[in-house]
Amino acid sequence: xxxxxxxxxxxxxxxxxxxxxxxxxKYTLYxxxxxxxxxxxxxxxxxxxxxxxIVAPLAFIFMSYVIGYFFKPKVRLEGRLPDQVVAxxxxxxxxxxxxxxxxxxxxxxxxxxxxPVSFQRINRHDIVQRLKPGQSIEYLIRILANRRGIYRLxxxxxxxxxxxNLVRMFRGNPHKLSTVPVVVQPDYYPMERIYISSQxxxxxxxxxxASNVGESPEYIGNREYRHGDSPRRIDPRAWxxxxxxxxxxxxxxxxxxxxxxxxxxxxxxxxxxxxxxxxLEAAISxxxxxxxxxxxxxxxxxxxxxxSELHVFRAGRHLSTFDKVxxxxxxxxxxxxxxxxxxxxxxxxxxxxxxxxxxxxxDWDKSREKIVRFAVESGCTVRVVxxxxxxxxxxxxxxxxxxxxxxVYKPQDIIKGNAVRI
Length: 422
Description:
By secondary structure, the chain is α/β, with parallel strands linked by helices. It has eleven helices and 21 strands.
């Protein structure tokens, strides 16, 4: 039974690929219209005039295949797909097409086979009418990436629609083209500054500890030994020169260390729109704006992105490039199991040197309140932002008495850049 189902699924997949190749990739818009009209005429065939409506388009399509076969472009493509683009923005891919054949290439263009649904080709019908032997031309592919994520795009293939602009003819197999990973970063509106009061806390090991390398405070000089000084700091050379115990003195580093908790939890009964949650996209956009503003200053921020696996990454003070943070945020998905039991232990490891905690939640309930209460009781300044289109599951008015104001933003407010403060 399972084998029969797998066979049926494979046949269905092959049929869908064949239909895609035919209607989206192989035939042009005019080719689809022509074959559709021919199919309708075939269903209505009752006399000779209608029969001619079938034969004439079929003859044109047959001639397109025959003539196009001999005029398949023999070209060399030079260019590359981008590594990173921004969601909601158009990007341009530049390729140089060089005709390495002995005859002119007519009505040629470039197409990316199997373009994901969230990508929209803007200039799909741009055609180069003629490319002489040895001639080169720059061809632009304009694409709009509608949704963030990590995708694999195939290298473009060169085709010709000569002679009737009905069928695309090309060399090679588009299914076997190499793929390139493309990261679609979340879009966001930059914030001038994050106004959150946080005290400086001693960071054992300073910047090196923040980079997870080990303890290495900055050496500033020597002084006489005092009772209680660690023997490890004694400078033997200075002691021998001065004939008195001398220790090395270090400048311990104090700076603001923040934590940001990004909520990605949706209950299983919450329906999505084809894998798309507006609240989550807005929350990720807000997270990117916050990290961007903080990383431009002297603070360090740890981002806890909840999910089936807890992602923890650090930014600020040149510890990580902001593009790397955006790449991580591009791959964050919604989760359907309560992840806050995983967040608490990891937050507890850093809480003794954390100055403030920023929570970007998608709802409010007891599990989220528990995280906030733990941060407040640990002496941290807490700022809570809820991104939600509907009312929250549980009221939070009394909670504001001990954790401060809780801000609520609708997804469209963040997407439009109206979330001016946190």
